[in-house]
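Question (not urgent): is this output format expected?
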Amino acid sequence: MFQDKKLVCFDLDGTLIDSVGIWNQVDAALIDELSNRKVDLHEIQQQRDLQLTALRHRPDPYLEYCGFLKEQYDFEPVKEEVKNRRYTISRHFLDHIVELKPQADLLIQALKQQQISLALTTTTSLFNVQRYQDNNRNINSKISFEDDFALILTRENVQNIKPHPEVYLNVLQAFNLRPEECLIIEDSLVGVEAANHAGIEVVAIYDQHSAHEIDLIKAKANYYVEDFAELLSFVP
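Got this back:
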């Protein structure tokens, strides 16, 4: 799996950190605040996944997603204000609730010891990454995004979000590597598809919030593991 690899790329949400469910809670709180409606968390995730996939070619898919929420739940504020409120709500979760996936830090250190370069390749915002780095002791006590990753690419670095392969094509260009010299670790179907479109081998790692797509994920990934402990066993 890791043999002859010069670079390993890590997705962030749902892969390195246990955060997908947090965004369900953030959106639930947003909907409750602006429309006084209680919405099922599973329903929230499904509609967010569908909307972000459909809106992936827009300049700001997350702004348009907030516009969708405004129309869907009859919010009074304009979509720009909805987006601002969404991120205000998220700060408590980002700073105190989100945790690193078990043994993710051990894999990072093991790969660095093998002289394999690491990249963080996420279509979340730089704002979120910086909050994890600066404020979240659950995360920054175990890893350092700045020190452990040779390159960090976020939403601001791409025009197209996953499943478009842009973020991974940018990584190959930045490191001047061939696809076969790189390995990607993802948890979601859109992430696995982005790796497929870039022609790069991908390991899918289980996340409970992607379980509804597990059969497709397994079919499209080159490798599948249940957790980082299993993935660690493949490091030379």
